[in-house]
Amino acid sequence: MKKKGFTLVELLATIAILAVLISLSLVVYNRVKENVLNQELENTVSYIETQAKNYANDTNITVISVEDLILAGYVEPDDETDIYNPVTNESLNCYIVKSTYEAGKFTSVLKLSEENYIGENGKCTPYEKGENIIIGVSENGINYTETNSSKWYKDDVWLAGLLSGSTLQGELYDFEWKSNLGTTKTTEIIKTETVEGVTSKIPYTLIVRRKDENKKAEASTTINIDKEPPAVVDIKIKNESKWTNKDKEVTINVTDFQGSGIAGIYVGEKDCNEITEEEYIKITENKYTTTKDNGKFNVCLIDKVGNKSVTEHQFEIKYVDKVAPSCTITTTATKGTNNWYTQNATLVLNTVDKESGINKKGLTTSRTANYNNVTTVVQRDTKGVTYYGYVEDVAGNKGNCKLDVKVDTTPPSMSFSISGLNKATIKCSDDISGINGTTNMTQNLTGTRNYTVTKTCTNNAGLSATNSHTYTYSSCARGHNTCRYGCDEYYDSCKYGSNTCSYGCDTTYDSCATGSNTCQGGYTQNCTNKPVCTGGYTTIYCCYAHVGSTSCSETTTPCAMGGGISRHECNKYTYQEECTTGDYDPCISGSNTCQGGNVTDYGSCDSCYYGSNTCQGGYVQIPSTCDSCYYGENTCEGGFLY
Predict the structure, then answer these.
(1) Measured in whole angstroms, how far is the alpha carbon of residue 266 from the centre of its chain?
(2) How much is the pTM?
(3) What is the C-alpha separation between 641 and 258, in angstroms, rounded?
(4) What is the rounded CA–CA span in Å between residue 313 and residue 234?
(5) What is residue 190's three-state secondary structure?
(6) Residue 307 CB contacts under 8 Å (≥ 6 apart), including other chains
(7) Which of 102, 106, 495, 538 is the most buried (most CB within 10 A)?
(8) What span, in angstroms and rounded, lies between the C-alpha atoms of 384 and 401?
(9) Other Cβ atoms within 10 Å of 68 Cβ, number
């Protein structure tokens, strides 16, 4: 196979790509190299500044050239004599390092942008070394301390030059004081002269020269004097004219203008001239927020140097209501016993609020607040219900009340019954409040005449009911019958049977159940049949003792019909009705004025009202006269009937 080489176009493209890559590599290389050199320069400057600070600590000289630091052995040169700028390869020997003393320590700075003290011959030119002179301040003109440009003074202060903590003396130094006020003084000590009521920030410069050698020292400071009292800018009360149930938020904006700054604030009822410094609240900004209840309050300020506000600022807080409204639920219904009302209870919700006033209210049986604006309800019979009153005032305070209500307007009901033959049972019942005491009472019935029982029931509400009932005495209130039919001629399906009976009565409607009677007494007739004899024979009267008897009782008849005796001559005699005066009835006749009603018809009481019959069929003689208990016996017990 024949191999194919690169074309001219492909070679040119490859060369172009290589050229671009080489160019990019050079750019990156140069950039990296530049960064490395700049970092070396920063390290070199930092090294020189550190050694200058050490030199100042050792010698108190604050203005020194790099070359003198090399000669003094504090800086190592890159060759035998010089230290160089890594970026430009320029010698750094003739640059000046300046040190300042503040807050108890030196800080040294080498600025390559400032003058390079190098001459035309390449040698460093002369310069003035500077000593560590600082400006001291005294509030009493005696004790001087190092000035602090951030410190404020309330009154004018004295200034002096200090060297190693001691004031400079005029016999050794010449003094030159300068300030932005344009004044120049040459005394050892000067006193500031500021205007009352004004805040002053005055920069001072002190230049001193030793009289015996060519050394100059210079120090600068700013003296801050605050003779201006702080003031209130404005007072803002949140929701000033709106009712609330919490202290209102008050924001007080204050200022100390350009002075020392606000140190404390007092917000209260005291006058500002009565406030001690301990009563001021420390604040760190020109805004103070607090909360206050109703009242008038003074605002007093103090700044950091002790100036106090001279204008009294006052504000008033109103419309704060922290007292919850009150309510009661009342009724004029009569109260019985055990807190039961015996009348329908009209309940009234009463509300009171002495501050912001009532906003909404409600009367309900709900345990959850319901402001339905209902203030009156009527409660009828109830075993017990709790009414709740809810009230809220305009400020949002809430109150509540409650009343437990039990209403029973109906006396208890009573019922009478009988147990056995001689025990009356009385039952008291009340569906609302219940019976106070025994619900079931008994009373023994005695004697053989009607007995009236009177009882009283009382419910838990205190209402009573009294009722009476008369129990009727019966000589045969309860009896047992053993009966057999006594007829033999006609067939009766229950000719023979046995009954176990007890008395019972029906309650029937009587058209004259109640009324008035006008009665007249009289006697009733009692009629009987007696035999009437005919004929002239004497006979023996022989009749069965009663129908169905099998034994003959011979009795001499009052009739003489001859001398013969016949045993079965009963049919020869007829019977004649004979009437005599009967029992006396106290109301044999009378007139009635009646009203209908249900009565217990004692006349229809059945001696076998309850019972069971076991019957056997058979023949009876005369069905119309057959008696279901023609043969038998009754065993009766006297007792009372309801």
Answers:
(1) 37
(2) 0.51
(3) 117
(4) 9
(5) strand
(6) 154, 226, 227, 228, 229, 230, 256, 259, 260
(7) 495
(8) 17
(9) 20
C-alpha span between 633 and 636 (Å, rounded): 10
Q: Which tokens go with 191?
A: 């006193």
What pLDDT sits at residue 544? 32
In this structure, the number of other CB atoms found within 10 A of the CB of residue 547 comes to 11
What is the rounded distance in angstroms from the CA atom of residue 237 to the CA atom of residue 250? 5
Residue pair 444/423 in contact by the 8 Å Cβ criterion: yes
Q: What three-state secondary structure class fits 81?
A: coil
**How far is residue 29's CA from residue 31's CA, in Å, rounded to a whole number?**
5
Cβ 391 vs Cβ 370: under 8 Å: no
Place of tokens 């009727």: 472
pLDDT of residue 169: 86
Could you tell me the two tokens for 182?
Answer: 């344009």
- Reported as a pLDDT band with limits 50, 70 and 90, residue 293 is very high
The contacts of residue 617 (CB under 8 Å, 6+ apart) are 491, 492, 493, 494, 495
Q: Could you tell me whether strands 152-153 and 216-226 are parallel, antiparallel, or unpaired per DSSP bridges? A: parallel
Q: Answer whether residue 538 shows pLDDT above 80.
A: no
Give the residue among 72, 114, 120, 76 at the shortest CA–CA distance from 96.
114
Beta bridge partners of 516: 593
The answer to whether residue 421 scores a pLDDT higher than 80 is yes
Residue 261 CA, chain-centre distance (Å), reads: 47
Which tokens go with 441? 């009472």
pLDDT at 377: 97
44 three-state secondary structure: helix
H or E, element range at 520: strand 507-532
Sign of CA dihedral 54, 57, 62, 68: negative
Of 151-165, 373-387, 566-580, the range with the highest mean pLDDT is 373-387
596's CB contacts (< 8 A; 6+ apart) are 509, 510, 511, 512, 513
Let me know if 637 is exposed, middle or buried by CB neighbors in 10 A (0-12, 13-18, 19+). middle
**Predicted pLDDT at 229:** 96
Q: Could you tell me the two tokens for 576?
A: 């004649």
Q: Which helix H or strand E contains 540, and what residues bound it?
A: strand 540-544
End-to-end CA distance of the chain: 145
DSSP symbols for 559-583? --BBS---SS-GGG-EEEEEEEEEE
Q: DSSP per residue over 207-273, as a string?
A: EEEESSSS-EEEEEEEEEEE-S--EEEEEEETTTTS-BSSPEEEEEEEE-TTSS-EEEEEEESS-GG
Give dist(CA 144, CA 164) in Å, integer: 12
Measured distance CA(108)–CA(532) in Å, rounded: 178
Contacts of residues 369-377 at CB distance under 8 Å and 24 or more positions apart, as own/partner, are 369/398, 369/400, 374/349, 375/348, 375/349, 376/346, 376/347, 376/348, 376/349, 377/346, 377/347
Q: Do residues 456 and 465 make contact, with C-beta atoms less than 8 angstroms apart?
A: yes
Give whole-number Cα distances, 133 to 95, 146, 325, in Å: 21, 10, 75
Q: Read off φ and ψ for residue 55, nearest 5 degrees.
A: -65, -40
Beta-bridge mates of residue 2? none
Q: Work out the pLDDT band at 464, boundaries 50, 70, 90.
A: very high
DSSP character string of 378-442: EE-SEEEEEEEEEEEETTS-EEEEEEEEEE--SPPEEEEEEETTTEEEEEEE-SSS-BSS-SEEE
What is the rounded average pLDDT of the residues 50-74? 87
Q: What angle do CA 6, 11, 12 make, to 5 degrees?
A: 150
